[in-house]
Amino acid sequence: MFKSVRQVERAGDEWTAFEQEALPHMAYVFRVAMWRARDRVEAEDLTQETFVQALQSFHRYERGTNCRAWLMTIMHHLDSKRRRAKSKLQLVGDAEERIAETVAFEPPTPQGVTEDEVLRALERLPRSYQEVVVLADVEEMSYKEIAEALDAPLGTVMSRLHRGRKMLRVELAGYARERGIGGAEAGGILPAASAGES
Amino acid sequence: MHCRDFRELVDSYLSDELLVETNHDLFAHLESCAACRRELAARRELRATLKTAFTRAVDLQPRAEFVARLRSELRAQSPGAKPASAAGRRAVWLALAACLLLAVGAFGVREAWRRQGAQSLSVAGSHTVDNSSPAAAVTLAANALAESAVSDHRNCALTHNLEEEPISLEEAGERYDPAYSDLDGAVMAQAGPTEPDFELIEAHACVFKGRLFGHVIVKHDGRLVSVLVTDLAQTPAKANAPEFSSGRAMSCSQLAGYQVACFETPRHAVFVVSDLGEAENLKLASSLVSPVSAHLKRAERRA
Fold first, then answer.
1. DSSP code at position B300
2. Which terminus of chain A has a smaller tally of CB atoms within 10 A, N or C?
3. pLDDT tens digits, B229-254
4. Is A2 near chain B, with CB under 8 Å?
5. Would you tell me how many other CB atoms lie within 10 Å of the CB of residue B190?
6. Nearest C-alpha of chain A: how many angstroms from B169?
7. Are B242 and B231 in contact (CB under 8 A)?
8. What CA–CA distance (Å, rounded) separates B36 from B26?
9. Chain A residue with minimal CA distance to B260?
10. Which residue in chain B has the smallest CA separation from A198?
């Protein structure tokens, strides 16, 4: 119950460090949690659990490293545990891999797509692909950090990212065609297959 | 490098994941390939759009109330706000002191009031504390003690919402306990004559939940701070309590946004309550230990 001056100062320092390093990422963590859960209550629970766990483990956080990646690692572990508890099987992963493998042709990246279209296209990707795309291209985590956060081999992360980005472009190319928007090679440039590859 | 290679690598380039040598190869290809320059621009634009879409999507934003609540809960759970684990002797002391305060609650007020008449100030009676289960009582009692201190600070110093009118420290010193006389002088002594950031606002004796407090209110760092002194000597339970290590202030609780730090002399307990930060409040309490303890001990020797 009682704390000495030194104890208070030490505890205060730790809170200050947590406040400065971890709390600024709360909105990021929530967004990813919301994207994963698709349910606000569940996302808030997951975000709360993540930060409570982070606070308890903050002495293990290595100062100066990517705190957001560290928080994502915690969130992923908590979320995986929850999903296991709900008996959601990982068989989906195999199906997703097969879907991803079927995307062979890659059209030029469309330009002028709207934010809404990008989000809708992202939603149409298999979930495991959405996740890596969000972590890499939105949250700007490195491939290595993503691999650590998701507890997955680096090669798996890289291949999922490659395929996920490709699927996203294919989806968007569909929207762009519907709206008559050109790709990177619109405006009289030859299609990709015969664009004069050097 | 071929266009096909470029398209395979361009996303990793944008993620800054390529080796420097590979980057050079990409640049060399870009110089001679307009289609790939457009592709690079398109991928960069797509990534920017994705990021903006994600960070601006209303559905993905946390509610302000949620952020505020979580932040507050984390602060409350932080090591700085947690009770220390092993503080056996002090915890027991605190439990006993708190039990005393609880025991002299409404019943004590009523009895004292009856004895002294309606015009006098009601003070704590001396009722036996049931401490047959001190361990179980520690948390509840400690919380109750902190709550009492915070409540008195809030009701007396901040909102002037007391059921009974306070009396002067001198009157309380003559009628109840000489330690209250010139308590404000002892508190102000810590600041010295040149301390600009320590201003006496008010000093009196007041009763909260049946307990008489010598109450000195000061302004420090723009905040109101209560220094509350109460007499513990009348309780039989004190005789059974292990001696509390006096001579330094300890941060003992945080409640409703207020910090409570405390220290003691053989017969008195002193609480410092404010909405300063925990470290700042404790620092202030520490600076009060020497002058206030000396003042109280002198009074205790005279009594």
1. H
2. C
3. 887 754 444 433 434 445 677 777 66
4. yes
5. 18
6. 29
7. no
8. 10
9. A2
10. B2
Q: Where are the beta strands (DSSP E) in B186-286?
A: 198-208, 211-220, 223-231, 250-255, 258-264, 268-274
Task: Please state whether the predicted TM-score (pTM) of the whole model is above 0.80.
Answer: no
CB of A153 within 8 A of CB of B3? no
Mark yes or no for CB contact B49/A30 under 8 Å.
Answer: no
Q: What is the pLDDT of residues A130-171, one digit of tens each?
A: 989 999 998 888 999 899 888 889 999 999 999 999 999 988
Compare CB distances from B84 to A2, A9, A55 and report the shortest one's residue.
Answer: A2
| A195 close to B (CB below 8 A) | yes
SS3 readout for chain A: CCECHHHHHHHHHHHHHHHHHCHHHHHHHHHHHHHHHCCHHHHHHHHHHHHHHHHHCHHHCCCCCCHHHHHHHHHHHHHHHHHHHCCCCCHHHHHHHHHHHCCCCCCCCECCCCHHHHHHHHHCCCHHHHHHHHHHHHCCCCHHHHHHHHCCCHHHHHHHHHHHHHHHHHHHHHHHHHHCCCECCCCCCCCHHHCCCC
Decide: B208 and B155 in contact? Cβ < 8 Å.
yes
Alpha helices in B192-270 (DSSP H): 236-240
pLDDT the model gives residue A190: 30
pLDDT in tens, A55-93: 988 888 888 788 888 999 999 888 888 777 665 444 445
- Tokens standing for residue B30: 């870009």
Position A165 scores a pLDDT of 92
Higher confidence at residue A58 or residue A103?
A58
Are residues A2 and B251, on separate chains, in Cβ contact within 8 Å?
Answer: yes
Task: Please give, rounded to a whole number of angstroms, the shortest distance from the CA of B37 to a CA of chain A.
Answer: 9
Closest approach of B107 to chain A, Cα-based (Å): 28
Confidence of residue A6 (pLDDT cuts 50, 70, 90): low
B91-150 pLDDT tens trace: 444 544 444 444 434 334 333 333 333 222 322 222 223 333 333 333 344 455 556 667
Q: Is 0.95 exceeded by the ipTM?
A: no
Instruction: Show residues of chain A in contact with B75, CB under 8 Å.
Output: 15
Q: Is the dihedral of CA A133, A134, A138, A144 positive or negative?
A: negative
Give the largest CA-CA distance in chain A. Answer: 77
Q: Identify the closest residue of chain A to B138 by CA–CA distance.
A: A1
Partners of residue B93 in chain A, C-beta under 8 Å? none
pLDDT digits (tens, 9 = 90+) for B28-84: 888 888 888 888 999 999 999 998 888 888 888 888 888 888 888 888 877 655 444
A13 to chain B: closest CA residue: B80
- Name which of A1, A113, A138 is nearest B51 (Cβ-Cβ): A138
What's the confidence (pLDDT) of residue B180? 92
Interface check for A134 against chain B (CB to CB < 8 A): the answer is: yes
